[in-house]
Every structure is written in structure tokens, then in C-alpha cells.
Write a structure and sequence with these properties.
Helix 11 runs antiparallel to helix 15 (366-387). The protein is an alpha/beta fold. It is built from 24 helices and 23 strands. 38% of the residues lie in helices and 17% in strands. A six-stranded parallel β-sheet has the order 5-4-6-7-9-8, with helices on both faces. Strand 2 (22-26) and strand 3 form a beta hairpin. It folds into three domains: 6-210, 3-Layer(aba) Sandwich (Rossmann fold); 219-379, 3-Layer(aba) Sandwich (Rossmann fold); 388-574, Thiamin diphosphate (ThDP)-binding fold, Pyr/PP domains (Rossmann fold, 3-Layer(aba) Sandwich).
């Protein structure tokens, strides 16, 4: 190595310099692949990675989170909003700092969002063992709490020597930038190794420019797909998140408009086509609209693009016409063969352009077009009805969604994750902005909402970001309100307060059970009255402006005040936990007790068995 130029660095310093050297080409502009790092320092990373980050604050800004899980959520939301083209990293101390991130790691893994995790670890030398917060396993001395990351990471490594970075980091970048394998990358970093030095070759830190790698479809698969489309009389497209990540929204719209094929959107795919496009027939599946779901029951060809085809999309395998042919266009071969689909493996943008060349003369029949038009018009009427103010003091979540949607503008974004709100949002939210709808529903993780909103705002600083969050999720994770104020990243947060876990309460009752341990009124308590949280006061304590309102009319005025605010603004509104958007939807497989003393459960079980019969027939 003496003949090569070398530089003596600690392993942590080498890691940061390597990250800074990684660039990405976006719209002919060269940008940092890693525009920032979220950090909560502790004894496992403050003296190593913390020291290295301090030296490079300008090239790689560091942001302090208030909770390790929530800062990782913010990092994930940032990358998702930018269609996975830029990535944020997160570093934590060893022990609880690391394990706090495991939930977020699973979320990024499931949603296929790149996330670089750099958790501190115990001493590689083991001389001071057992150190503070160290997990000891008397059968395997190599195990630490960071092994929890292995099943929720696409790539995992533990750096035991400084020179191991030479082979580990390029592999980590390969996974992070791969459209198929991307997800959580975890590099566990023992705290002593972070501070060890080595003579690194300078060429290891040369600038590397990455770009979106696109995979062409196989010719034989393409021919089969074209024949399917040529034969179809009643085709329907399901647009998944892969449309966004392939930057294929224009190609999707052109393909649909030219062939006159209706499009239904998944949670991840929503916004792929403007809501006002006559080929947009709304959301699909369990939380889908009646137009799209009815068309899927009648379709002879279903073209799924960039979707995992999870149970919420397929109605637990009961929604699609059992006689329909399924064509799955996906960059991931693993996803493309699900549900007996004809696999067409390839990048969505390239594949749609290629299919257009073969299908330019094809158009669906007038009868199918008329059916699409009628169902779409009926659905839009239902959307407006569910979204309008009914004038009650305890509105439905759907009425709140309608109010927030009406107050938003063209390039604004709504953020949500779990509970009943994602279903109502998928049905009711209208957006013409391809990134105007940000709902995490792959993992449906409570607590993602506010932190996710912060990440979205970092990615789109000129957009107004509306965070819609239930009272239950707010209580789980709210501390990034403080971060949003501290960083000057304004959010409008609407807390939909139905007195507990309203969504699961309704599910519980639908399964024949009585309300139990979901709504606060149904929980064990020593208090004489049902407890309530003053969310407005709580938000003010973290520096936000806030207020509580009653009814939709008051909410609309509060949203105007929030929009004019220069800082994060929290609005709390009480809603009815028993009201939901009844329009649309489909059965979802939630197992009901086979034996019970409750009559309601036994009745629900009979209905469940009927649906299971239908499900089995569709296998």
C-alpha cells in the first residue's frame, strides 16, 4: 500500500468521508446521495461517529431527533417523498438507542424505502465487558442487541476492524441504490472500532455518481403481455408505489388515456394519476372506492404495476373477478409472480413505453368506457357526500378529511399512517400533485405521522404539509413537534380525537365483541370520569401554536389560521368513534373466534366462514 496515496483516519471519519463522496444525478443535477444524518448521541457513538460528524457539518448536516424511532421515520419519509433518490442516515448509541429503531427498520424494509442505520455497538475487543447496556448471551458471545436488526434489514454488517469498511460500504451503497433490493441497511459499529485509525487509500473517497438503474423487460414476457392486452375487453390497471419510484407517472397516464383503461390506486400509488383524470376510478381494495372495486369484479384483465398486491389491495383474495387474468409489471420478480400472475419483470417507465409501441391501435370498447364513466361519476358523488359538513359537533373522520382537503392547495401534502384515517383518506382525498398523498400503509405504523410529516417537509420545504393523526398515534409518538419548531419546518397537524383507538374498536365490534380496552371509556381506570388529553396545551408546551375546535365549520376557520402561521400549528377536533365512511370498501380477512360464549361472535364467525369459502375458491 506504500505506493498508493493514503490518509490516516478513524473508522468513523472514513465512514463519513465515504458517505460525502456519494452523489446522485437527478434531472441532470448532481446532488448528495446523503443530504443529512439524524443522530441521538450516547456512549456508543458520541466519541466516534459524533466526532466525525462534527468535522463535516457543512458537507453532511446533522439533525438531532427526540426519539430514535421517530427520527428514523423522518428519514424514511424524506426518501419516500423524493422517490428514493436521496437517502438519510440515522445513528444511535448502543443498547436501547439501537433497539428503539428496530420498528422503523421494519417499516423501511416492508415499504422498500432506503434507510442507512449506523447503530453503536459493544466493544469489539471485549476487554471492558460487560459494558453499560450490553446484552449478554451465555451461549454466543458475538450476539448484541443489534442482531435484532438482521431480520428487518436488506443488508447487515458489523464492522470489527477499520479496514472492513473497504468492502462493506460499497455493498451497503449497492443495496441502498438498487430498485429491487433497497430497504434498510444496517452497519453495526462497535464503539472502539469507530475510534480506531487506519491508513485508507485516498481513492476510496473519490466522488461516485449514482443514478436510477432501469431494467428492460424480457422480450418473451413482453410478447405474452401484449397478447393479453390485445385480447382484453374489460381491463383495469392497479397503480402501485413503483410508479412513483420509477418516475413513470406521465407514462402511466399516457398509457391509460391512449388505451382508455381505468386506473385504481393503492395507498402507495395514490397520486400517480390526477384525481380529475376521467380514467382515475379511485382507490382499490379494502379501503377502496365502489367504482374501482366494482370494475375489478367485472374485469377480464387486471394489470398490476409496481405493487406487492397485499391483502388490502386484493380484499384478502376475494375482490378480483376469479376468471380475470392478472398481469403483474414489477421490477421485483418476487412480487411479479404473486396471485398466479403473468410476470413482466422490468422498470415501469421503460415497460409502459414499450407496451405503448405495441398497443397504439388498441382502445377498450364503448360499453366498457361507458361503464367506467357511470361508476366514476357515482363514486365522486359519494365522495362529496362523505366529505361534506353534516353540521354535527362530533363529525366523522371523513368530514374532517374533507375539510382539510378543501383547505389544501395544489402542491400541498397530506401525511398519515395508521388507524381509520388512512382508509378514509384513500377513499376521499383528491390530489393532482403526484407527491401530494403520503400515507405509510405497508407497515401501518402508529407513531409515524408527525415524524413522517417532518421528513416530508424537509424534502418539500415549499409545500404545506398537513399531518392527520389520531389521538392514539399522537400519544404514542409526538416529540418531533419540538424538532419541527426547532428546525423551522412548519407542519399543520390535525389531531382527530375520537377518545381512543376508534378504528380497532369498530373492528372489535364487527367481529362480534363488545367494546373492550380500545376506547378510553372502555379501559380499566381508577378515575370517575373518562380521561381526556389537552392536546392543544401539550403541543404549546413544545413550542407549537395550537387550539381545540368543535365541528367542521370551526375547523375550516382554524385551518385558515394555521395556514397563516409561521410555525407548526396543532388543531385538535373531537370526532365520533362510531362514524366511518361506509361508501366503498371490501371484506378483509380478520380471523374470528371459532368458539365463543358471545352470540355476536358466533354470528360474526358464520359470516366469516362464508367469506373464507369465497377466498378459497379464488386461490
Amino acid at each position: 500500500m506504500s505506493s498508493k496515496k493514503v490518509i490516516k483516519l478513524t473508522a468513523a471519519q472514513a465512514l463519513i468521508r465515504f458517505m460525502i463522496a456519494q452523489k446522485v444525478k437527478i434531472n441532470e443535477e448532481i446532488k448528495p446521495l446523503f443530504p443529512g444524518v439524524w443522530a441521538i448521541f450516547g456512549h456508543g457513538n458520541v466519541a466516534g461517529i459524533g466526532e466525525a460528524l462534527f468535522q463535516h457539518q457543512k458537507a453532511l448536516p446533522t439533525y438531532r431527533g427526540q426519539n430514535e424511532q421517530s427520527m428514523a421515520h423522518a428519514a424514511i419519509a424524506y426518501s419516500k417523498t423524493l422517490n428514493r433518490q436521496q437517502i438519510m442516515a440515522c445513528t444511535s448509541s448502543a443498547g436501547p438507542g439501537s433497539t428503539n429503531i428496530v420498528t422503523a427498520a421494519a417499516l423501511a424494509h416492508i415499504n422498500r424505502i432506503p434507510l442507512l442505520l449506523l447503530p453503536g455497538d459493544t466493544f469489539a475487543t471485549r476487554i471492558p465487558d460487560p459494558v453499560l447496556q450490553q446484552l449478554e448471551d451465555n451461549t454466543d458471545q458475538t450476539i448484541t442487541t443489534n442482531d435484532c436488526f438482521k431480520p428487518v434489514s436488506r443488508f447487515f454488517d458489523r464492522i470489527m476492524r477499520p479496514e472492513q469498511l473497504l468492502t462493506s460500504l460499497p455493498q451497503a451503497i449497492r443495496v441502498l441504490t438498487d430498485p429491487v433490493d433497497t430497504g434498510t441497511v444496517t452497519i453495526a459499529f462497535p464503539q472502539d472500532v469507530q475510534t480506531m485509525s487506519w491508513n485508507y487509500p485516498e481513492r476510496f473517497f473519490e466522488e461516485k455518481i449514482h443514478f436510477l438503474r432501469r431494467q428492460h423487460a424480457d422480450e418473451n414476457q413482453l410478447k405474452s403481455a401484449v397478447q393479453m392486452i390485445l385480447k382484453a375487453k374489460k381491463p383495469v390497471i392497479i397503480a402501485g408505489g413503483g410508479i412513483h419510484y420509477s418516475l413513470a407517472t406521465k407514462e402511466l397516464e399516457d398509457f391509460s388515456n391512449n388505451l382508455l383503461i381505468p386506473i385504481g390506486e393503492t395507498q402507495a400509488g395514490k397520486g400517480a394519476i390526477p384525481w380529475e383524470n376521467p380514467m382515475n376510478v379511485g382507490s382499490v381494495g379494502v379501503t377502496g372506492g365502489s367504482a374501482c372495486n366494482e370494475l375489478l369484479k367485472e374485469a377480464d384483465l387486471i394489470i398490476a404495476i409496481g405493487t406487492r398486491l397485499g391483502d388490502f389491495i386484493t380484499g384478502s383474495r376475494t375482490l378480483f373477478n376469479s376468471e380475470a387474468t392478472l398481469l403483474s409489471i414489477n421490477v421485483c420478480a418476487y412480487d411479479s409472480i404473486k396471485h398466479r400472475a403473468l410476470s413482466l419483470v422490468g422498470d415501469a417507465k421503460l415497460t409502459l413505453n414499450t407496451l405503448m409501441k405495441y398497443c397504439t391501435a388498441i382502445k377498450t370498447s364503448n360499453d366498457w368506457q361507458q361503464r367506467v364513466s357511470i361508476l366514476r361519476k357515482e363514486w365522486l358523488i359519494a365522495v362529496d357526500e362523505a366529505s361534506r359538513d353534516k353540521g354535527t359537533l362530533l363529525p366523522s373522520d371523513g368530514e374532517v378529511v374533507g375539510a382539510v382537503n378543501r383547505s389544501s392547495r395544489e402542491r400541498d401534502v397530506v401525511v398519515c399512517a395508521a388507524g381509520g384515517l388512512p382508509g378514509d383518506l384513500q377513499k376521499l382525498w383528491k390530489t393532482s400533485f403526484d407527491r401530494g398523498y403520503h400515507v405509510e400503509y405497508g407497515y401501518s405504523c402508529m407513531g409515524y405521522e408527525i415524524a413522517g410529516g417532518l421528513g416530508v417537509k424537509m424534502a418539500l420545504p415549499d409545500s404545506q404539509v398537513y399531518v392527520m393523526v389520531g389521538d392514539g398515534s399522537y400519544l404514542m409518538m409526538n416529540s418531533e413537534i419540538f424538532s419541527s419548531v426547532m428546525l423551522g419546518l412548519k407542519l399543520i397537524i390535525v389531531v382527530v380525537d375520537n377518545g381512543g383507538y376508534g378504528c380497532i374498536h369498530r373492528l372489535q365490534e364487527n367481529c362480534g365483541n363488545s367494546g373492550f380496552n380500545n376506547l378510553i371509556r372502555d379501559c380499566r381506570s381508577t378515575q370517575n370520569e373518562v380521561m381526556r388529553v389537552d392536546f392543544a396545551a401539550h403541543a404549546r408546551s413544545m413550542g407549537a401554536k395550537s387550539e381545540e375546535v368543535e365541528g367542521i365549520a370551526s375547523l375550516q376557520k382554524a385551518l385558515e389560521r394555521a395556514r397563516n402561521s409561521e410555525t407548526t400549528y396543532v388543531i385538535n377536533i373531537l370526532t365520533d368513534p362510531n362514524k366511518t365512511v361506509e361508501e366503498g370498501g371490501n371484506w378483509w380477512d380478520v380471523a374470528v373466534a371459532e368458539v365463543s360464549n358471545e352470540k355476536g361472535v358466533n354470528k360474526a364467525r358464520k359470516n366469516y366462514e362464508l367469506q373464507k369459502e369465497k377466498q378459497i375458491k379464488n386461490l
